[in-house]
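Discussion board: Methods & Data

I've been asked by a reviewer to show the raw model output for two of the constructs in my manuscript, not just the figures. I'm not sure how much to include, so I'm pasting the format here to get opinions. Each protein appears as its amino acid sequence followed by a line of discrete structure tokens. Is this the kind of thing reviewers expect to see in a supplement, or should I convert it first? Here is construct A:
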Amino acid sequence: MLDFLPQWFQIFFFSMVPWLEARYVIPLSMLQYGWEWWQAFPLAIAGNILPIPFILLFFRYVEKFLRRFPFWVKIMDWLFARTRKKADEKISKYEYLGLFAFVALPVPFTGAWTGALIAYLFNLKFSRSLLAIFLGLIFAAAIMIVLTIYISWTLTYLGINI
């Protein structure tokens, strides 16, 4: 990674990156840096949640600005259509519980950034959306921690070094 930066900063910073987020940075910090999960967890969660309130509050202004440029119109139309298609049934029916479940599922394209975009697209309330996304982040990170520990232990038991 960026070896000239302290590991704690790398964990914090890379958790802010869309589609990487805490769910993948925590296992990476455990395997690459030898950090314990409880050391990486608060840094990664803090880094991951940091941009979310800004997305929820200000994305409409960013969208309005970017829609002045044809290149961004095409990208946003594609991204918004894809996001709506993935989330429409869950969010329309379950709203914040659906948002939580969407963020909590630790698979690609279902993290906090996408959750914030969904909250924006479905015009969900700020405080409830932020809470649902935050709880989903914690749940997704916990799943990845358990999987990482289990896989690491299993490989060690089988005599395979990681």
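Construct B, same format:
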Amino acid sequence: MKTVRIVNWTPRTPSPAVEAFLRRPAFDPAAEAAAATLLAEIRQRGEPAILAAARRFDGAKLTAATLRVTPDELTAASQQVSPAVRRAVAEACRRVATFARAGLRRNWRIPTGRGGSLGEQFVPLDRVGVYVPGGTAPLASTAVMTATLARVAGVPEIVACTPCGASGRVNPVLLHALQVAGATEIYKVGGIQAVGLMAFGTRRIKPVHKIVGPGNAYVTAAKRQVYGYVAIDQVAGPSEIAILADDSANPAWVAADLLSQAEHGSGHERALLLTDSAALAAAVRTELLAQTALLSRAAMIRRVLPKGVLLVVTPDLAAAVELCNRFAPEHLELLTRQPRRLLPRLRAAGAIFVGGWTPEPVGDFVAGPSHVLPTGGAARMFSGLTVEEFRRRSSVIEYTRRDLAAALPVIETFGAVEGLDAHSRSATIRFR
């Protein structure tokens, strides 16, 4: 039981273990350096640098002709997918698309009162890139949670990148999911080189306007460094979950939910229990160890348990909420008697799962909101991926002579204050 820590915490008596757990570095210096070097090489050499990196890091012996997944490969992949998996992918895409359509903002307009109007219009981006990790697991769900949103937004060109490994083949379920979700181009490349391909393009491949999707520390570093050449959604790193629970929670359920994120197994995941019940914490620790032994990724989970899992006992739920807001988790579950009462007090979380019948994996696979969420405490500044990330917003201003006349004194005043007389003159000249 020493592999899973239980600590006490109050706002007035901070715990060194808790403070250390809250610190999740946003960037890995080694990854930053590697990304800078390889991205510079890709900008200079283009496709040869991408192919060389794919061989070096993924063992993939790709050529210019085999870099892109062909229509025949897509057909063959779909034929390998079982009917049950096809149904699951279709249902997940349907639910995600339904949620995305509900979130689309509509063009709007309000009158100025003098014959003019003000408003906004929204149009899709022309070309976007989605990154789908494929290292320790082929994340078909990420294909659904990214490309589907772009399709609903109306993006005509959706580029997907995912690593293929030494075999030169991408997992067939992942390829099928990308097809159903709406990807129009798929490339067998991952890591920094995939970000470089999408951001800078090659002689054969056009660059995208925005890159979205999660990835490891190297992908995260690369996305951050290409910002400005392209837009990005956020810097999403290792998975994390916080569970806020009282003594009404089922310890077996709590443990299972914590393990759902620990099993990613990079060693950098975070799984945090916040509870006012010492008895629950003890029972959850017992369950964690017992359930880990039953799981196919037990070895990977054991890499996370000592430092990446923490069970914190607080004096009351108010203190638990305070600590939760400091943690700003990617995923937050509320397993209390009256979970909805806590919602107004929770200020920073990528996604909130309310009640015992809403385990975090419903968000990963099927509920509707995208599972691409901020990590590492970034939920204090960023929100999860939405359909609006794939559209441009333009303000639309239409003044009449009367509108401009009414605004003229304000324009003249600001022009004078800021020493920008050409600004003022562009308005006043219309009345001479």
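Answer (T.O., handling editor elsewhere):
This is acceptable in a supplement if you add a one-line summary per construct. For B, something like: DSSP finds 16 helices and 14 strands in the chain.
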